[in-house]
Write a structure and sequence with these properties.
Keywords: Kinase, Transferase. This is Aminoglycoside phosphotransferase (APT) family kinase protein. GO terms for molecular function: kinase activity. InterPro entries: AGP_Transferase, Aminoglycoside_PTrfase, Kinase-like_dom_sf. By secondary structure, this protein is α+β, with helices and mostly antiparallel strands. The protein folds into 2 domains: about 10-100, 2-Layer Sandwich (Phosphorylase Kinase, domain 1), CATH 3.30.200; about 105-295, Alpha-Beta Complex (Aminoglycoside 3'-phosphotransferase, Chain: A, domain 2), CATH 3.90.1200.10. It is built from 8 helices and 10 strands. The strands form 3 sheets. A 5-stranded antiparallel β-sheet has the order 1-2-3-5-4, with helices on both faces. It has a 3-stranded antiparallel β-sheet with strand order 6-8-9, covered by helices on one side. β1 and β2 (about 40-45) form a beta hairpin.
Length: about 300
């Protein structure tokens, strides 16, 4: 399904052609579609590899960012992260860069895979603590590392206001959600310095093995910025995970309110943008907003 006006379609035939041109030793391996998000399409290659292809030009820079930073982060983080093994070049077959990674076994975090939600929340908090504590490595909030998540809430005001308007009648409680967002915008900006952010720690990007959190994938949203936006996805998880996560990081009330506002910003924006093209993602966004409305510390 096409999600963006500038999307470049890709299928197994195109991926095999790319492999024949650059890694012919892999071209004959079994190849199967392994899912697609809003930015990339994935194909499992044999038993040990994953091909990740951007949907549109904007995403190509995100993959380059992953290839540059993940090898530096991997030894310093407490969970497995993707390991890039090939940097694909643009060509006549496909005009954007693409990547190949080591396959990581695991299942999406959810009620059928997570054995202990408080433990899951603590493990996720431990990962966030270590990621946020990484050395800047001479990086700054600029270029591909300057995304809207990690900035000040008020900077997202124009398009967030449009999202609220487009969600009117589609999302129960939209007035209450907009009020929460406006109250958070009125708070002082975070006093914490800019840190490394994954930016999208939702269930589909957290892999579970043997009932416990094992790996964090999809660092396309990697940025440096204020830490509040990192906590937005905690509303995607059951209350015991949220409480354990919050307690483990010992975050204050203002941070909670700004993080909640970021959860609202991303979810309403997702519904407004993808409501006619990506029903599964829209359902995720609706579930997050329902959780925000139902859960208050």
């Amino acid at each position: 399904m096409t999600l963006h006006d500038d999307e470049i379609p890709v299928d197994e035939t195109i991926v095999r052609a790319l492999l024949r041109a650059e890694r012919p030793e892999w071209a004959g391996l079994p190849l199967a579609r392994a899912g697609a998000g809003t930015d990339n399409t994935m194909f499992r290659l044999g038993d040990e590899l994953l091909v990740r292809v951007p949907r549109r030009p904007f995403t190509a820079g995100m993959l380059s960012k992953e290839r540059h930073w993940l090898p530096r982060f991997a030894p310093l983080l407490p969970l497995a992260v993707p390991e890039p093994v090939h940097d694909g070049r643009p060509s006549a077959v496909f005009p954007l860069p693409w990547s190949v990674y080591r396959w990581i076994d695991g299942a999406e975090a959810g009620p059928d895979t997570v054995r202990d939600w408080p433990a899951f929340g603590r493990d996720l908090a431990a990962f966030v603590r270590e990621l946020h504590g990484l050395d800047p490595m001479d990086a700054s909030r600029a270029g591909d590392l300057c995304l809207y998540r990690g900035g000040a809430l008020r900077d997202a005001g124009d398009w967030t206001g449009r999202s609220f308007a487009e969600c009117a009648g589609l999302v129960p409680g939209i007035d209450a959600l907009e009020r929460m967002w406006r109250e958070a915008v009125a708070l002082p900006d975070p006093a914490a310095p800019h840190v490394w952010l994954h930016s999208d720690l939702k269930p589909t990007n957290l892999l579970v093995r043997d009932g416990a959190l094992h790996a964090v994938i999809d660092f396309a949203g990697l940025t440096r910025g204020f830490p509040d936006a990192e906590h937005a996805t905690i509303w995607d998880f059951p209350a015991p995970a949220r409480e354990a996560y919050w307690a483990a990081l010992d975050l204050d009330d203002a941070t909670w309110r700004r993080a909640r506002a970021w959860a609202i910003v991303v979810a309403t924006g997702g519904i407004a943008y993808y409501r006619d093209t990506f029903p599964a993602f829209v359902a995720e966004c609706r579930a997050r907003l329902t959780s925000v409305l139902a859960f208050d510390r």
